[in-house]
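Dear Dr. H.,

I hope your travels went smoothly. While you were away I took the liberty of generating a structure for the chain from your last submission, since the lab meeting agenda had it listed for discussion. I wanted you to have the full record in hand beforehand rather than looking at slides cold. The sequence, exactly as received, is reproduced here:
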Amino acid sequence: MNVTISPSRVQGRARAPPSKSYTHRAILAAGYADGATVQDALWSADTKATAGAVDLFGGDVDRTDDGTLEIEGFDGQPGVPADVIDCENSGTTMRLVTATAALADGTSVLTGDSSLRSRPQGPLLEAIADLGGDAYSTRGNGQAPLVVTGPITGTEVSIPGDVSSQYITALLMAGAVTEEGLEIDLETELKSAPYVDVTIEVLEDFGVEARQTDAGFAVEGGQRYDPAGGEYRVPGDFSSISYLLAAGAIAGDEGVRVEGAQPSAQGDTAIVDIVERMGADVDWDREDGTIDVSTAALEGIEVSVEDTPDLLPTIATLGAVADGDTHITDAEHVRYKETDRVSAMAEELGKMGVETTEEQDALTVHGDESDLEGVRVDGRGDHRIVMALALAGLVADGETTIAGAEHVDVSFPDFFDTLEELGATLDRSD
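The corresponding predicted structure, in token form, is as follows:
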């Protein structure tokens, strides 16, 4: 699908979609349990992949008419899947359920689409092997398709922390239902650390204790996943909120109110401070979970995305509108997402007339040297690139057409409907 966006001003109220990160963890945690009800879950392409994996391990995920997920779990004992686990485009699914597969008494095969099959899984495979399982890439390059045979029996493992925090999440979630638990030593500094905080928060809500140690993380074995009252409610998603706040900051003369923005462990809550530092008028009522934002003259700033990689596309677009340079640092791990998001934003914004300087670990957007022009751009099969480019289209001179816009279904299926409701003028076409 192509979406063409005309220059537009936005105003009004918008509700944040539920968190993708929390939903993935909640679906799998309910799978590890005897069962649970997950309220306010994000039902997207990625989270459906995690639900499908739970089904294949012996659970059952049923979505009711009101969007509630009624999940029957496999009670800490995943079965050997009767089919290949297709993780689609979801890196979170692949990493989290690879560790689940290592608990099964038999062999599981995991794959995904072409993008996912290019993403690194090697450190997690090595960790599973060190714990007594058998795990390998069919192509011998640390990338899917993956073959995993369990059950693992070890209790200590070391793993790098600078490739993906999802490796640690996967091992913590699986380690809780092993007999003796798991100690994870980090070989390098942990990047995207708030995502592990999210994991520990979800585990606690499901009655499972995990903790940070001097060397890394640990989780006791023999625990049961059992949320209070058998229910769990997913909070709003700050990665998605970033696009709504940015829309208000660059095109919200009359103001935009974002609802569903209660505080949580999500690192991407940093977007509130980032937009405010750049000069937008921002007011976050944490108790009510609302954020009001309106347009003001924006100034470039320096921002580290070490712990917030998903914010890079949003910040890059804000930088294209701001005066001066916006310097985004600690960004190398952002290259290993659905696409290389550093290069993708530099190249696609470049088509629109934005000057950038790309380094291996950084992206600088030169706002003073840029004039946003409406052109045809490519979403690169990446939901976050699509949404960031749509923001640029709100303030570009002329129409901006985004190819592959359907990929917003991964995390924010109603994104373009929400933009329209806020006043954006856009057209969809095949």
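Two observations you may find useful: Residues 186 and 216 are 5 Å apart (CA to CA). The chain has a mean pLDDT of 96.

With kind regards,
E. W.
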